[in-house]
Amino acid sequence: MMLAQADPNPNGTPQRALQDRLRERARLLKRETYVVYLAARNPRTPWYAKALAAGVVAYALSPVDLIPDFIPIIGYLDDLIIVPIGIAAVLRLIPAEILIECRAQAQVGGGKHVGWVGAAFMVAVWLVAATWLVLVVRALLT
Question: pTM above 0.90?
Answer without folding.
Answer: no
